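Components:
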Amino acid sequence: MAKSLPVLPTTPQQAAHHQPPARRETRQIDVGGVAVGGGAPVSVQSMTTTQTHDVNATLQQIAALNAAGVDIVRVAVPRQEDADALAAIAAKSTVPVVSDIHFQWKYAMAAIDAGVAKVRINPGNIHKAGDTSKVKVIGDAARERGIPIRIGVNGGSLEKRLLVKHGGVTPEALVESAMDEVAILHDVGFGDIAISVKHSDPWVMIQTYRLLADQTDHPLHLGVTEAGPKGTGTLKSAVGIGTLLAEGIGDTIRVSLSADPVEEVKAGIGILESLHLRERGLDVVSCPSCGRAEVDVYTLAENVQKGLEGIDVPLRVAVMGCVVNGPGEAREADLGVAAGKGKGQILKKGEVLFTVAEDDIVETLVHFATEMADEIRAERGEGDPAVIA
Ligand code: SF4
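Structure:
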């Protein structure tokens, strides 16, 4: 069934209401080439559910998230072996990788050394009461490498003193925790900071981010934490994240679901599209390639991108490095190729259509993409005016 498209404005008065909400002014940070804040498009994040030290499995999940349209991917680093795997993952991933660190400041240092695009730390557990030295060390290292840090506060791990001071997990307690950590990093001259103050209750989360937005110009990462399974989790996230974005608050988002993370990306993109904060154009995505790759994915993706230049409708084309997992990982893309030795399977909406010789891949994709683009334009009423009349 054809995807429903937004009703396009036909008068200037209607067009005025199709403008996205005005955005809060913030500083801008750079997450591995994806600008966050400072007027940049709101980016969509997700998190892998693999054991991070299983490099192939993690890269394969990143491939699926990329095909679904993710902008930034976070990986958990709970053990030394996960920290050890970061260099290989960061080098191969086709989207910026953020390392998620709790408790172990040394893993944050390892992640920075490994070349990740950003580090997330949680003030509630990264330093012992009163001793902020480790956060300063992380700030110094991040500055040297030119990567940002996200201060990610959540209700479940708030420092005891703040719980006592504010009478539990309140917006004031969450915001104070975040701003204390910002001050520690500012002390060492580090300002490339994004902040999140997630809560599992969307209404508390909304109030918390509003309070935070009044106190800082750092870009904000929005999310309802532990939102639940796909249905209720999407609903809570749409209310929490959507309300704030409609008020201009929020620069990057993650929908947290107890489900395949691809569902998080779909929900995140849906929220942005609902608010006219994202109008998709042509999007060529490629898998990071792992031990299974049988072709040079990067060169193939580049050639596909060149071949599709000029297509101006929402169309996602995935270039995957193997026929084993490529079709599954590309299932959210509109069109794709899963390339093998000397050949490529052409996919449409995740279904394999047929196999072509490697030399014919680009031409075949261009043919199908042009056909699909014409269909989309016709659906939008943008075809040949004579035909429409
Ligand atoms: Fe996935 Fe295959 Fe690419 Fe590896 S080479 S990331 S399995 S599509």
